[in-house]
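pinned: reference chain
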Amino acid sequence: MSSNPHLPPKLVGHRIAVSENDPIDAALYEYLLAGNGLFIRAKRREFSVSLPLSLQKIWGLPNASIGISWNKPRVPNALWQEVLLHAQNENPYSAFKEGVYLVYWDDAQREWKWQPAGRNSSPVATIADDSLPEYTEACIELHTHPPGALNFSSADDKDELGKFRIFAILIDVHDKPKIRFRCGVYNHLVPIPAVWVGEIPEGIIDLNEIDALAEMLS
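pinned: its structure tokens
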């Protein structure tokens, strides 16, 4: 953090934790060394994040908070139900193509909205239409995956690096749907549980939660 209030904030910051909830001062993102590890932190109008890059005890420093702090309501159950229904109806099982959905906050109506935004779609690939006004405003970018494709692909990584938003994949939309979230903070893509984002409808499986449980039991 700059000691001169007249200087612009650094694009990328580096700091050592003083309290559990130190302010985020960097213009893009900052690295924070805390008592519970190394964190990447950033903020935008909808939320701020504090995501662990390495969880390791460091004696003498306060622990940092972990998670997403929302400035807006979390995304409601009904929105995810609408997205899932649209994905099921738009691409039948016998002719599946990947789709993209943008989730953004509407200031005028003070609610979350969504917009289908895929182009150049095929059974195994799609990209978001970045000419849409909703693309710039999007807080969450979700795309569907074909049955059995349970992880973000290397192509997904390439498309999503360099952005600051939440990303998700929705898999097996026609049979036992599953979802996986991660938060992209420019050069970092960090898995996050679905409950950090909103209320997920009953019947949609959070794959990151399943992975965390499996790791605990291993």
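why pinned: The radius of gyration is 18 Å. Residues 77-90 form the longest helix (14 residues).
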